[in-house]
TrEMBL record:
This is RNA polymerase sigma70 factor. InterPro entries: RNA_pol_sigma-70-like, RNA_pol_sigma-70_dom, RNA_pol_sigma70_r2, RNA_pol_sigma70_r4_t2, RNA_pol_sigma_r2, RNA_pol_sigma_r3/r4-like, WH-like_DNA-bd_sf. Keywords: Sigma factor, Transcription, Transcription regulation. Pfam families: Sigma70_r2, Sigma70_r4_2. PANTHER family: RNA POLYMERASE ECF-TYPE SIGMA FACTO, RNA POLYMERASE SIGMA FACTOR. Residues 31-95 form the RNA polymerase sigma-70 region domain. The keyword Transcription applies. The lineage of its organism: Bacteria, Bacillati, Bacillota, Bacilli, Bacillales.
């Protein structure tokens, strides 16, 4: 899983944000370089196509560059950038009528993974893809990007209680669709980490 260390932005990163806000393009590119893997991965999960993910990534960078002077709190740069890419993905999907998500095993190096584990992951992923957008988004951020409830609330600009409700309801829907120990383990990890 990807860790979101960028949520805990350093003094150096805050300085880079402030420099970028004042027109320093090199500072902006340094910030994007630190975030690019996370951003591309999120785009790829939504659009399931390398070319489309690159296009969404580029749109995100343009929007971020144009909007950076209006960012009021530099320490929220990573959260703000994640919100932009999610919105760009949703806009791109709506315009393109794309509703596919990529399977999780294509996002990581699968070396010595058993075929039953991959089948379980694919079943879980297919069920996740069928969820309503609000549930899908919070579960993607929680389990595939390892965000806390607080971080998700910040990204989506909604109360933590709403995020918890969407996680709980999304997991309930998954429970109805799937049976098996792998889902129970996944659910327990979610519910234990509020």
């Amino acid at each position: 899983m990807v860790r979101w260390e960028a949520f805990f932005i350093t003094t150096k990163q805050i300085t880079l944000v402030e420099l970028a806000q004042n027109g320093d393009e090199d500072a902006f590119y340094q910030l994007i370089e630190q975030e690019q893997h996370k951003l591309y991965r999120m785009a790829y999960v939504y659009v399931q196509n390398e070319n489309d993910a690159v296009e969404v990534f580029q749109q995100t960078i343009i929007r971020a560059y144009e909007g950076l002077p209006q960012l009021k709190e530099p320490h929220y740069f990573s959260t703000w950038l994640t919100r932009i890419i999610i919105n760009c993905c949703k806009t791109y999907i709506a315009k393109s009528n794309i509703v596919h998500l990529v399977e999780p095993h294509t996002l990581e190096d699968v070396k010595s993974t058993s075929s039953s584990y991959i089948e379980e992951e694919l079943d879980l992923w297919q069920a996740l893809c069928q969820l309503e957008e609000k549930y899908k988004t919070v579960l993607l951020l929680r389990f595939y990007q390892d965000c806390s409830v607080k971080q998700i609330a910040s990204i989506l600009q909604c109360p933590e209680g709403t995020v918890k409700t969407h996680i709980r309801r999304g997991l309930q829907t998954l429970r109805q669709q799937l049976k098996g120990a792998y889902l129970d383990e996944w659910v327990q990890s979610a519910e234990g980490s509020h």
